[in-house]
Write a structure and sequence with these properties.
The protein contains one helix and nine strands. It is of the alpha+beta class. Strands 1, 2, 3, 4, 5, 6, 7, 8 and 9 form a nine-stranded mixed beta sheet that branches. The longest helix has 27 residues. It is flat, with a radius of gyration of 22 Å.
Length: about 160
């Protein structure tokens, strides 16, 4: 029985060695495994700070574009794809389609146009929080990227009446 336990311990350690090796290599030059930005795109890297309970946190990516607009509300839609690095299993995100700005059609009294930072709504939902890996996002050169960290409070039980 003791030999069987030692064998299982040794076997489990053999499975952990490649994982340790992969994380050690990642620490040396973290960005070398992610592709370089294509022409017309920029690579944005977000390193999240460690949290005490990362399981209860999510990240929201908010691409933004500067446009000239009057008093109307402007919306822009975009499509974000998730891709995985072959052999590593790490995800990265790419904003690959952006619609033309659409706006309300209110009559603006002075019709003055100003520069506005407009958030682009995307199909991407919240991303799991992980401070051990950088969030790597590729966006077109004329787009900036903001992000929000969402955390949850204690869970409440719903009651059946």
């Amino acid at each position: 029985m003791l030999i069987r336990k030692q064998f299982l311990l040794l076997l489990s350690m053999c499975y952990l060695i490649p994982l340790y090796h992969a994380s050690a290599n990642l620490g040396k030059n973290q960005l070398s495994i992610w592709p370089k930005a294509e022409k017309g795109y920029q690579r944005i890297v977000i390193q999240l700070p460690p949290l005490s309970n990362e399981y209860n946190a999510r990240v929201e990516l908010i691409p933004q574009k500067k446009i000239k607009s009057d008093c109307n509300t402007v919306i822009i839609h975009g499509h974000m794809t998730t891709q995985t690095i072959q052999g590593w299993g790490y995800d990265f995100y790419r904003l690959d389609r952006i619609s033309k700005p659409a706006s309300t059609l209110m009559a603006c009294p002075q019709n003055i146009k100003q520069e506005k930072q407009v958030s682009i709504t995307t199909n991407l939902t919240f991303i799991n929080y992980n401070s051990k890996l950088p969030l790597v996002v590729y966006v077109p050169d004329d787009i900036t990227l903001a992000y929000r960290i969402w955390t949850s409070s204690s869970m409440h039980q719903a009651r059946n009446k």
